[in-house]
Hints:
By secondary structure, the protein is an alpha+beta fold. The protein has helices spanning 3-11, 14-32, 94-102, 115-121, 132-138, 156-163, 183-203, 214-218, 220-227, 236-247; strands at 43-46, 54-56, 72-74, 108-112, 141-144, 168-171, 175-180.
Amino acid sequence: MSDSSSAVQAAVSASEWEQRVNLAAAYRLVAHFGWDDLIFTHISARVPGPEHHFLINPYGMMFDEITASGLVKVDLDGKKVMDSPYEINPAGFTIHSAIHAARADARCVLHVHSVNGVAVSAQAPGLLPLSQHSIFVLSSLAYHDYEGVALNQDEKPRLVRDLGDKRFLMLRNHGLLTVGESVSEAFVGMYFFETSCMMQVRAQAGGKLIHIGPQVIEGAQAQWQQVTRGAGGGLAWPALLRRLDRIDPGFRA
């Protein structure tokens, strides 16, 4: 561990360091699965504790460069609350800060511009019930119409209104977003979201499509909790961390 990494770890609580490690892992995994978009898009996570502080990536770094100590701690206005040599993109925190402020359960907000996700977001019907993966998303999915690059603070209330109490948000012509009570929950949710879109795009290249009935989707939330061990990836997330430790352990620095 480098001196700078050790200094950050010594300066924060054990729970914050654990959150930093998980968030850095999520960035590396987004890159690993090919959902990143150069240096753009963000994953933010609330710092455990009474303060409304959040962790986000240093602007300008690729997702496979993100480390636990390099994450920047900011307030809801995107202002740094801990010394850091790095800056963030305040405009990129617009969507995230709106959701964090409105949803106490949104401890992690994950947003990507994945190719499959954007493709489906541009289709009028949106996500279709074509796969087992899709039923978990469809049971808690909302949509938000495109208003341009998310620079306008006036868009925040409409974004929050459209998301409501849902776990998944499709940003029309833009990309995908998940919220979770943990980093692992938001990430596992995004895996199902993006995979559902990929399966849809591939299925549409073939013959007649078979849709899953609404009665199946109605029971999907309970099944989601069971399959993912509480929606937080109780089994999948530790396995993903083990994979990273084998192939890309630098996220822990």
